[in-house]
Amino acid sequence: MERKYTLDELVHLAETQGSLEGVSGVIVRLYESGTPTSLDLLLNLALSDYGGITYKSDYQMISIIGTVYWGAVGLRKLGERAIANNGFRAITNVTSFLSHVSSKTLNEFASTYRNFENVQQLDLSSDKYLTEELVSTAKEVLIALIQSVEKENTFPMGIIHNLGWGANEIAQEHVFAALMARWFNFSPIGLDNYQKLVSNSKTTESEVHNFLKSAPYVLEPFHAQIWSKPKFGEKLIPDFLIRSMDNNYTIVEIEQPSFSIITKSGELSAKATHAKRQALDFRNWAINNSLYAIQTYKNIYRPFCLVVIGNESTLSAMQAERLKQENESTQGVLKIVGFDWLYARAKATFDNIVKFGFERNTFKSVS
User: Fold this and answer.
1) Is the model's pLDDT at 66 over the cut of 90?
2) What would you measure as the largest C-alpha separation in the chain, in angstroms?
3) Which residues, 6 or more positions from 219, have their beta carbon under 8 angstroms from its beta carbon?
4) Closest by Cα among 239, 230, 303 to 275
5) Nearest by Cα to 65 from 117, 141, 8
6) pTM of the model as a whole
7) Is the pLDDT of residue 76 over 60?
8) Are 61 and 46 in contact (CB under 8 A)?
9) CA 29 to each of CA 48, 56, 64, 282: distance values in angstroms, whole numbers, following the listed order
């Protein structure tokens, strides 16, 4: 009687003894099972070294392509595993695959492997691989992968390698766009960690400060320079000073996320009032000592002030209206926001990079 192998055993045999056709057949079996465990086993094949065989890239590729069977979930898990693997071949292959999904050229990417059974079953010419969900997910995962791997390298060679291949030009542009997001240090993982940090009532001001030092894009997505604890004269030290790309400066004063912004009676809280006064003192120093200030902070002139305290999501409708009125009264000079406001701005910036940042021409005419 012929022995029946489990899926785990079949995957192990495919890694150690399988031909390309054999691996493809195992992947079809994983499709048929269709469980989350099957996806994990497929990812084992996608990132396996296959015992160091010469054509292991082909083995990996037919497995990587198979992740789209699980849709957006498959792409996200592929990205997570590639980040954890951090190997040159894994980074190169997964980056190339994601860039073709994100640029809607997946069918062209898989052309070399279309004769394999598991690739044929996917029907890659189908419109289901052109959906907004799948394309957006591919862009997000591509950015996360490029942001997270080979951090010790100025140039992540496993990724840049794809720019030198004779691959689809649109896919190459998507790799380049994701590299630009890396340059500005945008990180969807970092945004999630920030949101968790500022949602915790026990988080201290010092913890938030240290996080923002490591993730400055949360403070200002497109900053030119950011100083932590800069010196204004002998005694004045704001939390941050931001120089934007257009040479405007912003003084940032932060308090704890657990502090209230507006009292229940609709007044600015004592902590918010104190932070506001400090920020304006810093601003006045920069204005009154401009000749001295510009020696350290080039072109600084009447800096804007940003006070970050509490979370706006905790405000009632009345409190939110009072905060709006408070900010209108100091418009152009100072703004008070919650830590969740910083998150929302950074998240919107990242979402727009995903939605529009991969397109070369974003000008739209109005008919």
Assistant:
1) yes
2) 92
3) 212, 226, 240, 242, 252, 342
4) 239
5) 117
6) 0.76
7) yes
8) no
9) 18, 20, 15, 66
- Residues ≥6 apart with Cβ < 8 Å to 83: 144, 145, 148, 149
Contact between 72 and 137 under an 8 Å Cβ cutoff? The reply is: yes
Query: Measured between alpha carbons, how far is 296 from 246 in angstroms, rounded to an integer?
Result: 17
The two tokens of residue 209 are: 């400060």
Give the number of other CB atoms < 10 A from CB of residue 42. 27
Contacts by 72-77 with C-beta closer than 8 Å and gap 24+?
Answer: 72/133, 72/134, 72/137, 73/39, 74/39, 75/101, 75/134, 75/137, 75/138, 75/141, 76/137, 76/141, 77/39, 77/40, 77/43
**Residues 6 or more apart in contact with residue 125 via CB below 8 angstroms:** 107
**Dihedral, 229, 231, 235, 238 alpha carbons, nearest 10:** -40
Q: H helices of the chain, where? A: 7-17, 20-33, 36-46, 56-65, 71-85, 88-102, 106-109, 117-122, 132-148, 157-160, 169-183, 188-199, 205-214, 270-288, 290-296, 317-329, 339-356
Residue 201 confidence (pLDDT) = 92
Token code pair at residue 217: 């894009």
Residue 81 CA to residue 86 CA, distance in Å, equals 9
Residue 346: alpha-carbon gap to chain centroid: 10
CB atoms within 10 A of CB 348: 11
pLDDT over threshold 60, residue 366:
no
Structure tokens at 257: 């996320």
Angle at 27 between CA 26 and CA 30, to 5 degrees: 95
In sign, the C-alpha dihedral spanning 107, 113, 114, 118 is: negative
Place of tokens 């082909």: 58
